[in-house]
Design goal:
It comes from Geoanaerobacter pelophilus. With 118 residues, this protein is an all-alpha fold. The protein contains six helices and no strands. Helix content is 82%, strand content 0%. Helix 1 runs antiparallel to helix 5, helix 2 packs across helix 3 and helix 3 runs antiparallel to helix 4.
Length: 118
């Protein structure tokens, strides 16, 4: 078991780095450009530009993230809420969630990915 935990150290370091970077980056962007990202996000998609293509691709990844989180929790009411947080929160939610789950599962990657009941 300790080998699995040791193998997760780089993953956990990556998650912590992502958490710090996304909070700092989001704070700077929010302070400089305001906190309403939706007009810009969807406006680029409606304009059919490369930023819009990136936003659409990213939104598809967020859908996968939300569905995986809800599935991991067997589409329970709490799992659906967690899935919605994953969809709307992106990395700002998913990275802390995975960090927490990695400790709760004691490094068991099967449990991290599949949940405790699978």
């Amino acid at each position: 078991m300790s080998t699995e935990i040791n193998r997760l150290v780089p993953f956990r370091i990556l998650l912590i780095a992502m958490i710090i970077c996304i909070i700092v980056y989001t704070s700077i962007v929010g302070l400089n450009h305001g906190w309403n990202l939706f007009p810009q996000f969807f406006g680029d998609m409606v304009a059919m530009t490369w930023p819009g293509q990136f936003n659409f691709d990213f939104m598809c990844l967020l859908i996968f993230s939300g569905l995986w989180l809800a599935w991991r929790h067997q589409f329970s009411p709490g799992g659906i809420i967690i899935g919605m947080l994953g969809f709307f929160g992106g990395t700002m939610f998913l990275a802390p969630y995975l960090l927490f789950v990695s400790f709760k599962a004691k490094g068991d990657m099967n449990e991290i990915l599949l949940g405790s009941s699978r």
